[in-house]
Amino acid sequence: MQKALAGQIALVTGASSGIGAGVAKALAEAGAHVTINYHSHAEPAEKLADEIASLGGEALPVAADVSDEDDVDAMFKAVVDRFGTVDIVVANSGLQQDAAFADMTLADWRKVIDTNLTGQFLTAQRAVREFQRRGPRPVSKALGKIICMSSVHEVIPWAGHVNYAASKGGIQMLMKSLAQEVAPQRIRVNSIAPGAIRTPINQDAWASKEAMDRLLTLVPYGRIGEVDDIGRAAVWLASDESDYVVGTTLFVDGGMTLYPGFADNG
Ligand code: NAD
Questions:
Q1: Residue 97 to residue 104: CA distance in whole angstroms
Q2: 96-110: pLDDT as tens digits
Q3: Whether the CB of 197 sits within 6 Å of ligand 1
Q4: DSSP 52-66
Q5: Within 10 Å of residue 137's Cβ, how many Cβ atoms?
Q6: Is the distance from the beta carbon of residue 96 to the nearest atom of ligand 1 less than 6 Å?
Q7: Domains located in the chain, CATH noted
Q8: Predicted pLDDT at 145
Q9: DSSP label at 115?
Q10: Torsion-angle region of residue 119: left (phi > 0), alpha (psi -120 to 50) or beta?
Q11: 109, 122, 173, 243: which has the fewest C-beta neighbours closer than 10 Å?
Q12: Is 164 among the catalytic positions?
């Protein structure tokens, strides 16, 4: 049977760890050639590329800071030089720099907005330009697919993390407005909003039994999410199986956005 993403070219930002690495692997397993963007640590990206190659796939590690316009241009140039174009772009890079509101510095604010929101703007913009440049390809019904990695915090407020929550709220309207603008060109833009997924970004929330017990009070489905949960969602959103899905946030959160605190009348 033909793989869902056979012959397609993907780029995943922030793919040397966590969700990005899981998504890159899942896209490769579904038949895509994958560019693995990393920020500062080449080794895990190269290791993942070797792992994908050993499974019969093709992967290219590329360094870039997604908040830097020149870096993002160079990253897309590297993808096009190696693979000719790109069909699937997953804007995944993100970070937290937490502080109580009164103590949050402008640097804390800017770092998170620059990486999480401006980084997705630059990545998605270069993706749209590349889809438009090369025109339709027989590998997919869409001209191109963009997946923004959002968070349940695009809708759930998060005290102590206003920069992060603002960045994810911003991604919600970036994604929807862009989807509205480019859908007539058959470019599909959607988001995935993960709940609590076991990765380095939120290690404090699951590393000890006490922390995990506390976390699970927020998850009706009763388990933490794994990067594979997000990988499978990304493969579906990137494939023609979801061809009529446009401008939607897919929550992959074990029910976290069902506000379980209200289950017993609040
Ligand atoms: P992670 O820390 O493992 O991954 C984040 C990646 O982004 C890292 O590889 C990091 O190098 C990269 N990155 C950071 N700054 C960058 C920059 N300037 N340029 C390029 N890359 C940069 O954490 P993760 O949990 O895998 O997070 C991935 C995405 O998923 C983030 O956008 C995060 O907000 C989102 N998310 C995660 C969870 C969760 O529970 N883990 C929940 C909701 C949303």
A1: 9
A2: 999 999 999 999 999
A3: yes
A4: HHHTT--EEEEE--T
A5: 16
A6: no
A7: 9-253 (3.40.50.720)
A8: 99
A9: I
A10: alpha
A11: 173
A12: yes
